[in-house]
Write a structure and sequence with these properties.
It is found in: Secreted. This protein has about 250 residues and is mainly beta. The protein has one helix spanning about 195-205; strands at about 5-10, 30-35, 40-45, 50-60, 60-70, 75-80, 85-95, 105-110, 115-120, 130-135, 165-170, 185-195, 210-215, 230-235, 240-250. The protein has one domain: Beta Barrel (Thrombin, subunit H).
Amino acid sequence: MKVLVAFLVCLALASAFKFAPVPEPNPFNLKFTPSGRITNGQEASRFQFKYQVGLKLLSDKGTFWCGGTIVSDRWIVTAAHCTDDINAVNVYLGAWNRNDKTEEGQQIVFAGKRYIIPHEQWDTVETKNDIALIKLPAPIQFNEYIQPAKLPKYRADKNYKSYVGDVVTASGWGVTEQGSQPDILRYIEKPVIKYSSCNRYYFGNIVDSQQICINVSNKESTCNGDSGGPLVIEEDGEPVLIGATSFGFVLGCQ
């Protein structure tokens, strides 16, 4: 029997939002867990996800790892809960093997706290507006290793596509199984399901139309440890960012 697991991503770009650097508590007390570990996914090829970044987050409690997405030469999108109580961040650009500092094309950019901007309405209780921006101190020089993902086209009526039934891609460097941390970037490709179905299966009424729920099976999923990474769909041969990994079902990642 296949094990069915879901993870959630904020539909980060489906509506206008404001940001302010307001620290918030971490949402680990919920009946679901911040998500992002690619469990039993596939190994990415060297140039497959040029928009992917790794975030080594620095706090008084230690260091933490999250993912993020390049959307312009100065801006990274990630999850707000990744930035709770964070003092600074090292942004890994152009990385495939994140632990190989001599890797061709890999750059590590330091950004202080003032460059970390969580959504001003980030709600740790209901996990709403779980999105943040990181502004890089200097513009990225795009090259064969580093490129941005596109954003969905703006709609004045806010009537954005639900993506239900579409196959989307999530990627990251999180643990592939309990205790095993990969060096190489991994990914999964899974269909979007209705948020009402996601609530029925997993979350009660926590998910709404501003969030996207992914149906993951075959023991392939995301899990705790690498939140904030990209959820991308391909349109006209180009990657379009539609969300950032936010949270998943507490009873297991596989």
